[in-house]
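To: structure desk
From: M.T.
Subject: fold request, one chain
Message: Could you run this one when you get a chance? Sequence is below, nothing fancy, just the single chain.
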Amino acid sequence: MTDATTGTVAPTPDDGLRIADSDSSGPMLAADGTPLKQSLNRALRRQKIRALMLVAPLLLFIMITFVVPIAQMLFRSVENQIVGETLPRTIQTLDDWDSQSGELPSAATYSAMTRDLVVASEMRNHTRVGTRLNYESTGMSSLFRQAGRDVEDFGEGYTDAFVEANELWEEPATWVSLFDSEDWQTANADWVARGEEVGRGFDELPPRFKFADGVEDALPRTSDMYGEFARVIRSEDEDSPSDEEPWNIVYLSLYEDLAANPDLVSSFSGESASLLEDAAGVAEGLEPFDYQAAFEEIDEDWMDPSVWAIIDAFSSDYTSGYFVAATDHRLTPEGVQAVPDNESVYQTLFIRTLVMSMAITFSCIALGYPIAWLLANLPLRSANVLMILVLLPFWTSLLVRTSAWKVLLQQQGVINDLLVWMGLISDANRLVMINNQTGTIIAMTHILLPFMILPLYSVMKTIPPSYLRAAKSLGATNWTAFWRVYFPQSVPGIGAGSILVFIMAIGYYITPEIVGGTKGVFISNRIAYHISTSLNWGLAAALGSILLAVVLLLYWLYDRIVGIDNVKLGG
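Reply: Done. Structure tokens follow.
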């Protein structure tokens, strides 16, 4: 009820609140003695928390199944870790190389590439790097695939020389005793014992290899590659390095360490020192390995500075290259450059997608408006029958509907045959309505028309017919009454239907693929191609990000010009 002296609404017993007495100068208190405002805020917070808990499962489901996968996909548009993670040594040596000089990188770069490719080929990652760089320069994929196969033989002659001098170098135990720490020896022995005890069901990974103190400083190159060897054997083969002979590159690295520092033998003792002393004598009679010549023998393209410039340009963990490619440009060592006109496709597809989506939207408005008006003004029984016809396409597969239009629209199809039979066109001048923009617009207008009719119908149903009668009684013509009275009230339905149709049209790719040919496909067809065929997910993500940004921009412009508050689905 209302307080006569203050004009405020006083709580009643039905409000569920009890008000305690308060001093005339103090705040109004609740029954528990706390200020009434604070008590009300606490109650509101509890209500909000309860509401949040009710919708939390749905929010969590949407985050896990919708938001997170989309965010991960969009992240691929800038993600580029594969090059840096697979070729870390090569990238490090390229830091001091000037890609603009036109000269080849140093021999150290070829040496680093050898080591990176040996590890990558064992991990089966070299083809992934080649595929990534092939997006930027054709031929890189085959270059890396061939090199990944051949680098395994680099240093084979040094392996034979060391083994011929002493067969102990062929034994895995020799290398383990040269590098391992006592902690690893103990852990590995325990692992072997557990495996023998359990038998075939044993699936525990061996312990991580640990170097003895000082060995990495004495044999830096050999330790680096033997550590990679031990890591790969453990992760890929689930085995211990004590059971496998090292790669050829490990023997080559041992030669290079001995040749660079013959006195390193003094860092070892016992049998290891004796073996290394004999190996140092062998190394004196060997020639240095020519990495550049070995790569040239694999493929002469490795002598092309532009190959190394591409590797250097895309060595960072994040790249703008996909977005640059999505705008018909190319990221090169010299900077961003436009692609030739005969290769420019994405700008055309973006413009075509927007223009044709607009055309489809307007076609749906033109066809859907009178149908919705008829449904809204017919008796309920007749309207329900026609509504079934509007909803009937939803009961048919999208692929079937699209394929049916392909049959109808082709030059020897039903529509052309009917026009020829009626004498409207000659048999020699049949209309070309398929594999072009016309076919795409016709088929997609038919598919998306219900999404325009339903919002229009729900809004028109709420417009009282008496408004038109009142306008006519005041002297308005049928057209004036419709345009000045009825149409403005139906605009919210047009807005809702237009947003639905436009956003759905801009992302369609099945229908344009079937009836659009080369002239009627959308940018979404190219996105689908890169996801499922070329597997260039980075470019697909960049195209999708640009398309999303364009849709959000148009949505913002629509809100600024028309106002999203004016969009209604009825009521």
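Reply (cont.): The mean pLDDT is 87. Let me know if you need anything else for the meeting.
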